[in-house]
Amino acid sequence: MTTIYMIRHAEAEGNLYRIVQGQHNSFITPRGHRQIACLAERFKDVQLDALYSSDLRRTVTTAGAITKYHALEMQLTERLREINLGVCEGMSFGDMYKFDPVQMGNFNNDPAQWRAPGAETFAECTERIVSAVTEIAAKNDGKTVAVVSHGMAIRSLLAHILGVASRDIPSLPHGDNTAVSKLIFDNGAFSVEYYNDNSHLPPELSTFARQSWWKKETRGADPNNLYYEPLDPNREGETYKEFYAASWKAAHGDLKGFYPETYLASARRHFAANGKAILKAYRSDGELAGIVETDTERSEGAGVGWISLVYIKEHLRGRGLGTQLVGRAITNYEMLGRQKVRLHVSSENASAIKFYEDLGFEILGSEPGAGAPLYLMEKRFE
Q: Most buried among 176, 297, 316, 379, by the most CB within 10 A?
């Protein structure tokens, strides 16, 4: 008999930013690192004989929770990776829905029917993860093993063991980040003692406590998942100026020192350098929610990406949309090979400062601004 603890990785950027990860090699978030600390304490006094992990960064980092108290070799394998999502990797979940709403519905509610260019099928993912975990179980007969993998991969494994048909997958919920499932392998067959247990996490560290898409009744839908379209400041200059003016007023209280034509000229330069430098963000119901602007040329040689503007309409704040906007910019810079991202924040805007600090930004210093000094903040890609 082999006991296996299947562990989902800690919160990674795609989980927080609502961006499709698949086999994209994303980083763990600040909250994810705190989840890993809780996971380590959960397993501190559990007898473990072996440790296996997907070779992707987010699982390898999470597996550090086990090696903190257990002197085990971390055995890495591609076979424990997340499902390969092909062309969808790097899209936001809102983009994925807009790209093909029928297939997005299949992915959430009947994954055996899901197809995307360059992607694995659900059956292929299931065969890969089941064979990998079965081999691990057979190799470690009489032992207790920790296996760190990914959300959809673990869900497909559980569905296989529990006999849940693809069309009934909503009855088998996703597991929270660092959720643990305990499997028993005996006489060539698996049984499930428990699954998707996140009891080691306090509510404030649960990723799912802040999201609703995973709940059975939503069937994977979330109106606050954003999709993006480029904003052309040559054709949409008035829209751009309206957003920038609203952002300025929110930060400074009035429009003193705001020169719209100056900022529009900068936006046109940014757009000329990169056609996706300025993005309009829409909720899944089509409501225009905000804007994010990047300056991809500035400090390019130093490996730095600059975010020039982030704005969410006031009535839509508090729904995680700002996090998605910043996350979209961060992910785009990671895909461009940058090592860090910077931005300026008014020293008087306490809520914005905390918002960016929660996302892993640090204050590097201050510079003169329009009225109050500006803090220079930076997030390094770990």
A: 176
Which two three-digit tokens encode residue 147?
């296996």
**Cα distances (angstroms) measured from residue 370 to each of 260, 291, 311, 367:** 14, 22, 18, 10
CATH of the domain at 254: 3.40.630.30
Q: Which two tokens stand for residue 79?
A: 């076979």
Which pLDDT does position 272 carry in this prediction? 97
Largest interatomic CA distance in the chain: 75
Examine the fold and report which residue of 198, 218, 238 is the final residue of a domain before the chain moves on. 218
Strand order, beta sheet including 227-230: 227-230, 278-282, 288-295, 304-312, 340-346, 374-380, 362-367
Tell me the pairing of strands 340-346 and 374-380.
antiparallel
Closest CA to 288 of 357, 240, 360: 240
Condensed to tens digits (0 to 9), the pLDDT of residues 279-333 reads: 999 998 899 999 999 999 999 999 999 999 999 999 999 989 999 999 999 999 9
Quick check: helix, strand or coil at residue 158?
helix
Question: Average pLDDT of 156-173?
Answer: 94
Same domain, 169 and 248: no
Q: What is the pLDDT of residues 88-111, one digit of tens each?
A: 999 999 998 888 888 888 888 899
pLDDT at residue 160 is higher than 60: yes
Cα distance between residue 135 and residue 361, in whole Å: 42
